[in-house]
Structure formats: structure tokens, C-alpha cells
Amino acid sequence: MKIVLILVPLMLILVALGLLLFSWAVKNGQYDDLDGPAHRILYDDDKDMIPDEAKTEKKETASSEARPEADDSQSESKS
Question: What are the CA-CA distances from residue 49 to residues 5, 43, 44, 54, 58 (Å)?
């Protein structure tokens, strides 16, 4: 029974020491994530972040207008 009177205060001292060390580590940035922001930039989530009024449509009309002219020049050279 005498061992319990020794182990309980010893356990409380060790727990307090562990909590102090943990709080020191958190305050000094030991658990900061340094790699997360570098990897997070690679994720493709731009569609969700762009507001609807800022989105622009793809200009397919310019590319489709250029194609018939090229086709016409090719057909004229064949004739």
C-alpha cells in the first residue's frame, strides 16, 4: 500500500511534465504543417473558387471562323 502513495504523486508529476512539454511544443510551432501548403496548391479546385460573374466563356467562334477560310483557300488551290 505504501507503493501507491509513492506512485500516485510520481504519476501526477509525470503527467504535468508531459502537459507542459506539449504546450511548449505547440506554442513554438513544433506541430506546424510545413508541407501542406506546398501540396495544396497542386489540387485543382479553381472551379469552385471563381465567382460566376468573373467566369468567361471559351471563344470557339474565333477558331471556327478561321477554319473555313483555311478550307476555302485549300479548295481554291485544288481547282
Answer: 61, 12, 10, 10, 18
- Whether the CB-CB separation of 31 and 25 falls below 8 Å is answered with yes
Instruction: Give the Å distances, CA to CA, from 23 to 8, 10, 65.
Output: 23, 20, 66
Q: Minimal CA–CA distance to 40: which of 31, 49, 29?
A: 49
Q: What digits encode the pLDDT tens for the residues 10-62? A: 999 999 999 999 999 999 999 888 888 888 777 766 566 677 787 787 665 55
Cell of residue 26, nine digits:
505547440
Global confidence as pTM: 0.45
Query: Which residues, including other chains, have CB under 8 Å from residue 25's CB and lie 6 or more apart?
Result: 31
